[in-house]
Design a protein that fits this description.
The chain has one domain. It is 74% helix and 0% strand. Helix 1 runs antiparallel to helix 9 and helix 3 runs antiparallel to helix 7. The longest helix has 28 residues. The two termini are 24 Å apart.
């Protein structure tokens, strides 16, 4: 039991680091291309890499259509819609702090619907953790929010699409993992292959029709795309699906609260963006909230 706890903790810590490095990668990549084109090449390359791997390892087995459609739907929501909405909001000049704050609603949404969709009702101490975690994000992000007059009114609603998409995707995946029905179990590589293939199909239309696939190829962009493909789309999403097979959706969702403070720490290293006192306080509050969600049995007596 103790080994399983340590294993889950290690997976969760690695997931948080890899997942949030994607925002830094997007910061490097967006100056050279548009949102849909960046995601098109990212998931197009990932699809080819996974297809080659599955062929070489002889893992590309024929799967029921229902399994493929379910996996593809989860992928389009978790990859395509989630990332497109977050990046489009930034392209619309919505302050990054506001985007981070809106996206941080996802654990609360997951906790609210987990009982209805999956049958895993969040306890009152987990709800305390979810609320505490959101307050921590608000402390860390609130001091950085600067309302930008250049952002369109519609732009401020775009990040809610990310919240809705990743919440539905997480709950659908968790419900399948806990279902009593004998669904075929896909490997992580097969799961990501169908998800990335469906995502690139969906992204083709806006990437071609809206952005004309315009991109400025250079070494910095190639390096950024390589990391986004292997480190984020492959490794971090693989870890998220692995965690959802072991932990309830609310516990996994609470890890997203660590996104803003961890991303700010990464921005400090990458861009010299010095952390503020509110960042440190927010991180401590977020950590306390996540601990309440992960270990409700450790609540104060």
């Amino acid at each position: 039991m103790q080994n399983l706890i340590y294993s889950n903790f290690s997976l969760a810590a690695l997931f948080v680091l890899l997942w949030n490095s994607g925002f830094i990668g997007a910061e490097y990549g967006l100056p050279y291309t548009g949102t849909f084109t960046l995601l098109f090449w990212r998931y197009g390359a990932l699809t080819l890499v996974l297809f080659a791997y599955l062929l070489l390892t002889k893992q590309l087995a024929r799967q029921p259509l229902k399994t493929i459609l379910h996996t593809s739907l989860v992928g389009v929501l978790a990859h395509g819609v989630w990332l497109s909405c977050a990046l489009l909001a930034l392209e619309q000049n919505v302050p990054a702090g506001i985007v981070a704050l809106v996206v941080a609603l996802q654990p609360l949404a997951t906790g609210a619907f987990s009982g209805l969709v999956v049958g895993e009702q969040a306890s009152r101490w987990q709800w305390l953790g979810l609320i505490t975690g959101f307050l921590g994000v608000a402390i860390a992000v609130g001091t950085r929010i600067q309302v930008n007059d250049e952002a369109s009114f519609f732009g401020y609603f775009i990040p809610f699409g990310s919240v809705i998409a990743i919440t539905i995707a997480s709950l659908l995946q968790r419900r399948r993992e806990t279902s009593s029905q004998n669904y075929p179990r896909l490997s992580v590589a097969e799961t990501l292959f169908y998800q990335s293939f469906a995502t690139v199909l969906i992204l083709t239309l806006p990437a071609v029709s809206i952005e004309k696939l315009e991109i400025q190829w250079n070494l910095a962009l190639i390096a950024t795309l390589s990391w986004l493909i292997l480190g984020v789309s492959l490794a971090s999403y693989g870890l998220m699906w692995k965690l959802l097979s072991r932990l309830d959706a609310t516990r996994v969702a609470s890890l997203f609260y660590l996104g803003p403070p961890v991303t700010m720490a990464m921005a400090w290293v990458a861009f010299g963006d010095t952390p503020q006192l509110a960042d440190i306080i927010g991180l401590l509050v977020v950590t306390a909230g996540v601990m309440f969600v992960q270990f409700p049995q450790l609540r104060p007596r």
